[in-house]
């Protein structure tokens, strides 16, 4: 039984108020209003769903994929199959309902068939003349006939009347395989997309007016009227609405075109993976991607975007702010502060008495208090009332004597942090109608010696500030000098914002990152980093940390970091101008709406853009995950009986992710980390009940260690080691320009697998299998943080693929498996190093070994099982004798488990579970009888995950085994263990 | 990425350039021959889906060792696309699903049938494994179909295959036409690649079988002796090929190989052919398509 499935979403359909999706062979349904999953049911047998077609009366579904199709009935939003899936002998590309009981299919050899679904009998079959492979097709039902569009591998679309010998038209023009064909009869439009990255709009004109009759098509002229390019890779699918042509592609882009061929909007979705499927009605577009996710996009976002206003204030504005009541404060060069309500009418004007034109303006975190200070220390604090008609009141007007003031920020709602000449930091708190100085600190010398951001931690009485060199300083206990300085956290402009929640310091910067630091006894500790798609990160707009704003080149952008979505992108001219952004919730007759408002100064005018989020924001129906294959996976549970399973996965998309699922639909990424290249191996080392070390390694010879703490459904990560065997680019190159670098003759190795062992509380040893045939051993001191290579041993002359560590005969043993089918066993000494020579070398497989497991069967005896490219499972019983005299007692081969590479293998008591690229999960029993190994087939299951890279045992309760296979997606199976094997 | 990165990453890519092969796949055919001796006594060979021509290069070199006179060796290369000429190889630009192509081959062999048919064709993969595997299997079956027209009884057929979820269906179909079917993976083919090669020996069609192009072979369905899942699946023997001491395509080698004293960068023998997106690149040269 499969309990969790995530893989390419190859089909989506809007049906009444339900979203239907084909995920592998499963039909999954979701409520369109709240995105909640309704149903998951297996529809096909061993085939992915490539199409879901509702009947004309919306009571039945035709579901097809590969060579199968099946009919489902709907009763009150629940779908049930009408019978078994029907297996046809050709690949089905498209299908259509002819009536409530009759369907037509177009298959890959350009064959059209019609079927009676009540009897599942084939009614008619017509083999079209041109029967080379099709890549796409369209069956367009007319009043009494069917118009057949066939998209061939030879870049043509063939148009044919169903039943005719000769085609009507050949649409030529594409330069590659045709991936999709759509047609709108009323508009006389055909839209095609192709491998050649183009979208073509063809117009149909005919002397005859009725498109239901053959004469219309016989006399038709079909010409390509628009040749559109907006995609950077293959254009996979398209769909038509009344207003738009929507195309999706391999480049993760969704392009919205009008019928005149204008590109109205382009958005990137699904984390840079291919978008495989789409469907649209007149209000929404649904897309399914290679990241296993489903998204819904409101079509209102294509044209209607925002409510735009310009506030014209005769005098040049200096600073602009949104207040707590969503009103606007504008300071002007002429020493006047204006107050506008949310409808942009001016309601107040306050005269300021500043002497210097250098004016600093700050807003408290509650957004009610506005502080204005000039260079000479003249300070005004103005408060916005919270009830009644909006109004501002000046509550403090005072003169500070701090010297030349260079920066000022609010730290929370009570404290102001000033930095004046000579790096003097002064913290003041408001007290009645004046300011009381409560602390003074000194900023260490730097080029532009002032602060860019600051925050207070009340409980610890600690101040955290950022300076213009990108350093972050922590001041404590009123001591002048920083208690701790973390250098170069955010590049040369310094942090743009700092906030503290509990002990976690969150900083943003103009280096495209959000960084997380922790306040600890000895100062600050670097925890982790989140990379954004835009360089200039400014601040979070809400307390939950969902919306983050900043600048990308000349645009002001707002991102939803929870769902990795760009929400708003407004061209404003860049980040060097006065601007502000806010997010608020408005109660409109009991209906709560989320709004975003941004404003900026351009040509001395204030531009305000207001967005209602539901008009513009895409909704996540099913959260996505890795955009390419998952190479490695380990599961973790804090306790044996914990219902929550954590999945730690590394992928070809260069990310390492931590995800969880308590219930199926809740499977979602909780943390994403980036490697330089693909992540090929991951291992866990549990260090506390809810904390584990995650060691990940892969391309560019990179090894990373993180500590991950699990609390509830939250993940806290601390980055501990980031190491490259040959050093980072900078370390290797020094200060040389890359052009001047000489050719490096040594290849950078890929780390293929990794094993972790704990010598004691401090010392951790990491063994890596490398593509140049070396086993490299590293030692890392958890306390001191040193990570050093201690040993390089070479036995395999070719790439090592897998590694396994186990204990037998009181010895720690590591086995390494290579591309030649050879296994070497290494004894590990007490200091973690490997013996110079392997204790035993076996050649088990004919070719590369892609999976290995070991089961210790006796005091000094173990069973080795290996699977690989030769699609067999090899078992060897090995006896470890003293003095390095190891012998193979007996060998056995099981050849029927798989018909392709065996990539996953788990050896349990009496049971061997394997998986492979053939997408099967096979259980075989094993036992040792005398000098013989005996195996017997138990069970085999089919998995929808293609390109399976491996398997992990999630839990084993004795009678029930839960395993997770991974590759292009992830699937969890529960296997019942037969009593004889338990 | 530096110019030498690919040389470092892929040993066979580099060796192909150094030895003058048009593609690294040449090594695959050489290694298949080392294990299976498929060139034994072969004088007439057909290379299907031949472009860019590395297998034809191998055939020319190897088959000439079988004959005293170079002219006794006949090699026909078939591809939809034109490919750069190769001495001693007759090129047919044609579709392997057409009877005319089969006739042209026979004509080239002066009415005789081929001793060996090879096919290294693969589609441009879409990224969806099930479709890619299906299209590859159809390509293989189309190759098999034309092979039934041109191969002599007892002849050999070698073709690329994707070992995916439904590969047993292809195996069972091949087994109808050949006495021995094995699947083989040369050392020069990457471990991580789904490709392998079927070596089909002793062509022996079912009694009464008449080759046809009208009703092409469609692949089999799962049945009792070849189940979708279960103990009875049609799995053919696997044989790895290529010398154990041969280079390994997954291993990272230094640019200075063992026994070498110098390294020189070489340009590829044959540049890439026109990709489908060439037009778009031309047309959008002056425009900017941004993903933002």
From TrEMBL, chain A:
SUPFAM superfamilies with a match to the protein in the record: WD40 repeat-like
Gene Ontology biological process terms, A to Z: tRNA methylation
Top-level division of the source organism's lineage: Eukaryota
Keyword Lipid biosynthesis recorded: no
Presence of the UniProt keyword tRNA processing in the record: yes
GO cellular component, one term: cytoplasm
InterPro entries: tRNA_Anticodon_Mtase-Reg, WD40/YVTN_repeat-like_dom_sf, WD40_repeat_dom_sf, WD40_rpt
Record keywords, A-Z: Cytoplasm, Repeat, tRNA processing, WD repeat
WD repeat boundaries on the chain: 171-206
Location(s) in or outside the cell: Cytoplasm
Similarity comment: Belongs to the WD repeat WDR6 family.
This protein's name: tRNA (34-2'-O)-methyltransferase regulator WDR6
UniProtKB/TrEMBL annotation, chain B:
PANTHER family reported for this sequence: RIBOSOMAL RNA METHYLTRANSFERASE, TRNA (CYTIDINE(32)_GUANOSINE(34)-2'-O)-METHYLTRANSFERASE-RELATED
Catalytic activity: cytidine(32)/guanosine(34) in tRNA + 2 S-adenosyl-L-methionine = 2'-O-methylcytidine(32)/2'-O-methylguanosine(34) in tRNA + 2 S-adenosyl-L-homocysteine + 2 H(+)
Record EC number: 2.1.1.205
Protein name: Putative tRNA (cytidine(32)/guanosine(34)-2'-O)-methyltransferase
The entry's keywords: Cytoplasm, Methyltransferase, S-adenosyl-L-methionine, Transferase, tRNA processing
BP GO annotations: cytoplasmic translation; tRNA nucleoside ribose methylation
Source taxonomy: Eukaryota, Metazoa, Ecdysozoa, Arthropoda, Hexapoda
Domain named Ribosomal RNA methyltransferase FtsJ: residues: 21-203
HAMAP family tied to this protein: RNA_methyltr_E, RNA_methyltr_E_TRM7
Annotated active site: 160 (proton acceptor)
Class of enzymatic activity (EC top level): transferase
Pfam family, any one: FtsJ
tRNA processing is among the record's keywords: yes
Species for this entry: Danaus chrysippus
Annotated compartments: Cytoplasm; Nucleus
Tree of life domain: Eukaryota
Location, primary (coarse class): cytoplasm
């Amino acid at each position: 039984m499969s309990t969790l499935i995530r893989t390419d979403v190859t089909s989506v359909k809007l049906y009444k108020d339900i979203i239907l999706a084909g995920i592998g062979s499963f039909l999954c349904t979701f409520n369109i209003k709240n995105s909640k999953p309704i149903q998951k049911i297996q529809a096909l047998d061993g085939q992915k769903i490539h199409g879901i077609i509702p009947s004309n009366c919306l009571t039945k579904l035709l579901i097809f994929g590969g060579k199968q199709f099946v009919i489902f009935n709907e009763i009150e939003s629940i779908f049930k199959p009408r019978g078994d899936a029907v297996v046809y002998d050709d690949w089905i590309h498209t299908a259509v309902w002819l009536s409530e009981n009759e369907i037509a299919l177009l298959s890959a050899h350009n064959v059209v068939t019609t079927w009676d679904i009540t009897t599942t009998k084939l009614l008619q079959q017509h083999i079209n003349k041109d029967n080379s492979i099709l890549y796409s097709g369209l069956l367009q039902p007319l009043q009494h006939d069917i118009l057949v569009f066939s998209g061939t591998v030879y870049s043509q679309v063939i148009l044919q009347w169903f039943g005719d010998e000769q085609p009507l038209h050949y649409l030529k023009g594409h330069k590659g395989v045709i991936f999709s064909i759509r047609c709108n009869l009323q508009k006389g439009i055909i839209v095609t997309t192709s491998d050649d990255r183009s979208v073509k709009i063809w117009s149909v004109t005919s002397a005859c007016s009725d498109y239901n009759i053959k004469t219309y098509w016989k006399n038709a002229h079909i010409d390509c009227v628009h040749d559109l390019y907006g995609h950077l890779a293959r254009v996979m699918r398209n769909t038509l609405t009344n207003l738009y042509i929507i195309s999706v592609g391999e480049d993760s882009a969704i392009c919205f075109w009008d019928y005149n061929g204008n590109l109205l909007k382009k958005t990137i979705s699904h984390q840079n993976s291919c978008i495989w499927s789409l469907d649209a009605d007149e209000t929404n577009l649904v897309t399914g991607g290679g990241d296993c996710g489903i998204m819904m996009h409101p079509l209102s976002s294509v044209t209607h975007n925002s409510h735009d206003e310009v506030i014209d204030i005769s005098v040049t504005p200096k600073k602009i702010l949104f207040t707590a009541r969503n009103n606007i404060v504008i300071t002007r060069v002429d020493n006047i502060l204006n107050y506008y309500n949310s409808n942009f009418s001016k309601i107040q004007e306050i005269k300021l008495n500043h002497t210097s034109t250098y004016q600093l303006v700050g807003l408290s975190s509650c957004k009610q208090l506005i502080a204005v200070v000039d260079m000479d220390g003249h300070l005004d604090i103005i408060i916005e009332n919270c009830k009644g008609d909006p109004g501002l009141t000046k509550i403090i007007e005072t003169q500070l004597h701090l010297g030349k003031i260079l920066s000022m920020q609010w730290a929370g709602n009570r404290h102001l942090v000033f930095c004046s000449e000579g790096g003097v930091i002064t913290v003041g708190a408001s007290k009645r109608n004046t300011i009381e100085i409560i602390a003074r600190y000194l900023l260490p010398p730097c080029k532009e010696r002032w602060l860019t951001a600051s925050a207070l931690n009340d409980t610890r009485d600690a101040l955290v500030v950022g300076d213009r060199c990108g350093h972050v300083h922590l001041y404590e206990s009123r001591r002048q000098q920083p208690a701790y300085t973390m250098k170069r956290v955010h590049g040369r402009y310094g942090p743009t914002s700092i906030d503290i929640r509990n002990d976690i310091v969150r900083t943003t910067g103009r280096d495209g990152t959000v960084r997380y630091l922790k306040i600890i006894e000895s100062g600050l500790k670097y925890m982790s980093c989140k990379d954004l798609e835009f360089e200039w990160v400014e601040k979070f707009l809400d307390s939950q940390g969902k919306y983050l704003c900043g600048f990308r080149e000349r645009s002001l952008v707002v991102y939803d970091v929870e769902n990795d979505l760009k929400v708003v992108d407004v061209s404003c001219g860049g980040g060097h101008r006065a601007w502000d952004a806010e997010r608020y919730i408005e109660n409109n007759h009991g209906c709560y709406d989320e709004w975003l408002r941004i404003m900026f100064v351009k040509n001395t005018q204030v531009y305000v853009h207001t967005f209602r989020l539901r008009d513009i924001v895409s909704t996540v129906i099913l959260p996505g995950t890795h955009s390419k294959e998952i190479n490695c996976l380990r599961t973790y549970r804090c306790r044996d009986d914990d219902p929550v399973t954590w999945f730690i996965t590394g992928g070809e998309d260069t990310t390492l992710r931590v995800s969880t699922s308590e219930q199926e639909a809740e499977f979602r990424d909780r943390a994403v980390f980036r490697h330089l290249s693909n992540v090929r191996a991951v291992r866990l080392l549990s260090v506390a009940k809810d904390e584990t070390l995650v060691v990940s390694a892969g391309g560019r010879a990179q090894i990373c260690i993180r500590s991950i703490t699990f609390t509830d459904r939250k993940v806290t990560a601390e980055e501990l080691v980031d190491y490259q065997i040959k050093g980072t680019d900078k370390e290797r190159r020094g200060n040389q320009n890359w052009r001047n670098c000489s050719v490096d003759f040594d290849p950078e190795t890929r780390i293929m697998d990794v094993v972790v062992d704990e010598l004691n509380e401090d010392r951790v040893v990491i063994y890596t299998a490398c593509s140049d045939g070396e086993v490299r051993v590293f030692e890392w001191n958890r306390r001191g943080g040193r990570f050093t290579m201690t040993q390089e041993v070479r036995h395999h002359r070719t790439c090592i693929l897998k590694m396994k560590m186990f204990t037998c005969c009181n010895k720690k043993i590591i086995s390494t498996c290579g591309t030649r089918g050879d296994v070497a066993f290494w004894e590990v000494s007490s200091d973690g190093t490997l013996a110079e020579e392997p204790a035993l070398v076996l050649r088990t497989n004919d070719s590369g070994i892609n999976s290995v497991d070991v089961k210790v069967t006796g005091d000094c005896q173990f069973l080795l099982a290996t699977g690989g490219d030769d699609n067999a499972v090899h078992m060897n019983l090995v006896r470890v004798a003293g003095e390095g005299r190891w012998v193979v007692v007996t060998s056995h081969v099981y050849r029927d488990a798989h018909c392709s590479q065996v990539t996953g293998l788990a050896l349990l008591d009496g049971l061997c579970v394997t998986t492979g690229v053939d997408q099967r999960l096979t259980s075989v029993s094993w036992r040792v009888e005398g000098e013989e190994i005996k195996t017997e087939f138990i069970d085999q299951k089919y998995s929808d995950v293609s390109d399976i890279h491996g398997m992990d045992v999630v839990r084993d309760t004795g009678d029930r085994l839960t395993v997770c296979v991974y590759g292009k997606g992830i699937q969890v199976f529960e296997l019942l263990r037969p009593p004889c094997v338990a | 990425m530096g110019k030498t990165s690919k040389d470092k990453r892929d040993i066979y890519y580099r060796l192909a350039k150094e030895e003058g092969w048009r593609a690294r796949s040449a090594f695959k055919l050489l290694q298949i021959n080392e294990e299976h001796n498929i060139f034994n006594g072969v004088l007439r060979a057909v290379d299907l889906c031949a472009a860019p021509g590395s297998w034809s290069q191998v055939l020319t070199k190897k088959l000439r060792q079988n004959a005293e006179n170079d002219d006794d060796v006949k090699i026909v290369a078939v591809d939809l696309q034109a490919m750069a000429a190769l001495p001693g190889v007759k090129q047919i630009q044609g579709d392997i699903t057409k009877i005319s192509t089969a006739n042209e081959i026979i004509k080239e062999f002066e009415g005789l049938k081929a001793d060996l048919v090879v096919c290294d064709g693969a589609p441009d993969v879409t990224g969806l494994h099930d479709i890619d595997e299906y299209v590859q299997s159809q390509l293989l079956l189309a190759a098999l179909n034309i092979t039934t027209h041109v191969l002599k009884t007892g002849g050999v057929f070698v073709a690329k295959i994707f070992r995916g979820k439904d590969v047993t269906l292809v195996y069972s179909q091949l087994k109808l036409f050949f006495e021995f079917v094995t699947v083989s993976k040369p050392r020069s083919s990457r471990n991580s690649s789904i490709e392998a090669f079927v070596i089909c020996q002793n062509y022996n069609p079912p009694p009464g079988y008449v080759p046809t192009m009208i009703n092409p072979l469609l692949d089999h369905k799962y049945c009792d002796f070849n189940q979708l899942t279960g103990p009875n699946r049609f799995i053919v023997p696997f044989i790895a090929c290529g010398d154990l001491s041969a280079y390994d395509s997954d291993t990272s080698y230094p640019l200075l190989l063992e026994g070498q004293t110098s390294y020189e960068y070489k340009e590829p023998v044959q540049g890439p052919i026109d990709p489908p997106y060439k037009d778009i690149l031309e047309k959008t040269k002056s425009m900017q398509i941004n993903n933002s």
